[in-house]
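Hello,

Following up on my earlier ticket. Below are the two sequence lines again, exactly as submitted.
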Amino acid sequence: MSIQVKFFASLREKVGVSDTKINCVPTAGEVWDISTNNAERPANILVAINLEYAQFDSPIKDGDEVAFFPPVTGG
Amino acid sequence: MDSHIAETAFDPWKMIAEHQQQSGLTNQFGATATFIGTMRDYNDNADVSRMELEHYPEMTQQYLDKLKNTAQQRWDLLDTLIIHRVGIINPGDPIVLIACWSAHRRASLDACNWLIEELKHNAPFWKKETGQDGDRWVEQNTDGF
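Thanks for your patience. The regenerated structure is below:
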């Protein structure tokens, strides 16, 4: 099993990939570190686990989808 | 009740009329509150010639459904309609439509206001504007005042 990782909008352009897979790690913050090769994490970015807003210390389990994105600007 | 993403241009007035006609609520609602967000040809003192709206499709639909259901539980609404555009958008094009129907005005007015504020602050959409100096991501929404 593994973790599906997604990046959106300006963050996707900065990281250079839209999605990737990694082996399971304990928290969303560690997902960022592994999937970006320890890139500096912008202070204002948001994280979602399985389509719900989460925190960077939120726990991850096998099969989760973790998404990182900048502040939203819809409407 | 309906909430969905529109990948092509839509006519909000037509959508309101059609939804109202199909809802079966004729003679029940006494109030309809609507919000329609439309693309301007400027932002932050710069001309904008077009915009691309990106989203996180699965999360967006889930979030819009959640907003709609929460509004229905919180206010005494007879019906709710939410439509949000994605893709390439031109000045003058509608971006978002929110419509709420209720027996009396307060429920629909308050729910409509709450829905657009929640959507703007939390729904996973991102705007990329094209202007004379090229493309730029919108970093944050305005306060709305």
